[in-house]
Amino acid sequence: MTAATQVPVQPQAPRAASAAPLTVARLLRLELRHNAMPWFLPLIAALLWVDSYRPSVTQSPVWILRTYWNMGQGHTIVDFGPFVAGVAAWMGSRDGRRAMGDLVTATARPRWAAQLVTWAATAIWAVGAYLVFVGAMFAVYAHQGVQGTPPWWWVAVGAAAVAAFSAAGFAVGALFPSRFAAPLAAFGGFLAIMLSSQAGFRDTSGWALILPTNSNSNYEPASGIFYPFLPDLPIARIMFLAGLAVAALGLLGLPARAGGPRLRRSAAVITVAGVAAAGTAAGLATTARMGPHGMVIAALHDAASDQPIRYTPVCGHAAGIPVCLNPAYRRYLPDVTAALRPVLSEVAGLPGAPARAAQAAAPYTVGEGEGDMTFTLGGRPPVLRMPLGALSLPGTSAFSTSVTTAADFDGQARLLAVHAFVGAGASAGTPAQQAVQAALLRGAGLTYAAQIQALGNVGVPWLYFVNGNQPGNVPLSARGPVYAAAGRLAALPAAARHAWLTSHLAALRAGQLTLAQLP
Amino acid sequence: MTAAGVRPPEQAAPARPAGPVLAGLRLTWLYLVSRRVPLAVGLLAGLGVLQWVALRGRWSIAGGPAAQELIQLVIETGAAAVIAVATYGPFGEQERPTGRWLPWLRLLAAVLVTAVAVGALAAGASGGHLPGGTLAMLRNVAGITGIGLLSAVAIGGAFGWTGPMAYLLITEVALNGNPTTPWIWAARTPHDLGAALCAYGVFAAGIAAITIFGARASGRLPAPG
Q1: Exposed, middle or buried, A471 (CB in 10 Å: 0-12/13-18/19+)?
Q2: Interface of A with B (CB under 8 A)
């Protein structure tokens, strides 16, 4: 007999229980170290700079406008998604490509668990890089003095999309292990994004709102400046993308080689749960309705998000009238006062002339990020309300090759201000209103040719109807009875024109004047 | 211990020497199989079908006229990616000192698969109106294939698809504006000389590089199946 037999046997269970997470952690560490994802991060970073950052700097230094391209239209997802899907497919196909399927099936860990660890390592690299790169981009924006609130919810959507791409790509690689799995996943992912962009650009409501590249009616200038970003739609999108990711990963646990019956049943439940989450999110998107400052999903809406952001306006003067802007637009104050000065001088002393001009939130509209740019005039004393965020501001290019000049901006602002003054509202106005508008603009230094150019620049469909023109590509011309009447009114001496306007403005705004009644 | 009971190994029947043509064909076939060319041809045929369906169904991307070409450009880039990935060899360095015909086999495989890609996409173009026509398709496939082959030489055939994908992303953004550089050849008219020179120049460089150097064999990455 030896001493060894007298030593009581130590219970093993506690050690085994503590070893399991340790083993998983060790496996995860190994997978993180041997993952292919880091090799492609420099390339993705370069593409992000070229594709997502560079085009965005043509926009005004306001978060909602600066990030419209890369967050609102999801271009960071376009840059990341295909590469992440491709590399994840490569990682997912590893065992199959090496013909090690049987070998790894016989190991202590179920194959599904080992696959999930490999995917987790890939996703950690991809999502981590996404957050770091977007964080760096935002830091550059902040350094440039970009104003307002960053769209954090859209960053979360992007991170969820990257995770979903990694899961879908991994599943493709695991189910079709081949050297071609990676390009198949990458280009399939890119094609899916492009086709979803098509649905996203076209559809302004319904299920298509769930697509992360759809900016229609959900990423407009009022957000982050006058009101917080509404989290309703981003929450639904995160739920949708997470559901897709879970379903894709659950699929991997269904084959017989993935593990025991209990594990496979769990995988089936997880797959169904993922599909259900994605379906529920798409269903929630169909209930979305457009509010004045974002898409509202009743089931997800928090009334606290409707509270306006408090601010102290910055003010200047134009023709003796205060012109006040949101401090986020401080740098445009000289441009706005310069644009309004001739118009405010022209209408000074007339009934209903603005006593103050103030920037207002551009109400959300159906479409791609424009917002309603209509100026309004009302209140006692009258205040001219200007949704400047919806206009093309000086020095910006709205992603086109032509930059908005100060003259372009002056034309837009003057046109919209006079349009509000004659009471035409959200329409082209009556012929008499159109004629008075043209005459006042002429008096404010805007030639008829410049007025026509401004009508085109403003991009408000109803303005095209001026002088009987139709929207579309029909060229506008300064001819016809409207401009003839405008010419007669503009030709009057300033005092006579002022006197006529004083006595007829009420009837003009009520739409009761005809062209024949103009002097 | 004796050798009794140990059966001598069976002598293999002496192989009949094959003729040089047969041997050449067999070598070529083995090379193509090692590069998974048959599977690549199947995928290219699938892309041709996708092209046909896209044109037939008038799939398009919202945007200007250049954006309308994007679906076709994605398919053409996908074909170039398949060609690039098909350059990967599983044998690495071991293959190089033994095969003096290797450069010619690489050239043959690259040209053959590119020709199949162009043929498949041209056949797919019968589904409807191909933006830019066959000439633009030929130019685009050639240019992006050149990028794929250069990527395969630089980073390995298995990841040769990353070059075409990066080019596609850059082109997709450029199509939103009016790019003037001929290097974004997909945005230029089919008869643009500068764009054609750039695209075919890149293709020639890619073919030359893959012929001379072959796809990079990395010791860090496992051989793909």
Answers
A1: exposed
A2: 36, 40, 43, 47, 50-51, 55, 75, 78-79, 82-83, 86, 90, 93-94, 96-99, 177-180, 182-184, 186-187, 190-191, 194-195, 197-198, 201-202, 399-401
Following DSSP, what letter does each residue of A299-326 receive, concatenated?
GG--GGGGSPPP---EEEEETTEEEEE-
For the entire predicted model, the pTM comes to 0.86
Task: For B179, list phi and psi in degrees, rounded to 5.
Answer: -65, 140
Cβ A433 vs Cβ A508: under 8 Å: yes
DSSP code of residue A460: -
Phi-psi sector, B169: left (phi>0), alpha (psi -120 to 50), beta: alpha
Of the candidates A98, A177, A194, the beta carbon closest to that of B61 is on A194
Contacts of A198 in chain B (CB under 8 A): 59-62
DSSP structural state of residue A62: B
Looking at per-residue pLDDT, the higher value among A311 and A1 belongs to A311
Identity of the amino acid at A231 = P
User: Do the chains contact at A401 and B177, CB–CB below 8 Å?
Assistant: yes
**pLDDT tens, A181-219?**
999 999 999 988 887 766 556 666 678 888 888 887 788
Angle between helices B102-124 and B193-212 (to 10 degrees): 140
Residues composing chain B: 225
pLDDT at site B222: 45
Q: Are B184 and B176 in contact (CB under 8 A)?
A: no
Chain B residues with CB-CB distance to A50 below 8 A: 169-170, 173
Single-letter amino acid code for the residue at B140: N
Span between the terminal Cα atoms of chain B, in Å: 46
Q: What values do phi and psi take at A404, rounded to 5? A: -70, 125
The alpha carbon of residue A2 and the mean position of all alpha carbons in its chain are separated, in whole angstroms, by 77
pLDDT digits (tens, 9 = 90+) for A292-328: 888 999 999 998 888 999 999 999 999 999 999 999 9
Question: At A315, is the secondary structure helix, strand, or coil?
Answer: strand
**Do the Cβ atoms of A363 and A369 come closer than 8 Å?**
no
Element (H, E) at B109: helix B102-124
Structure tokens at B5: 């009971």
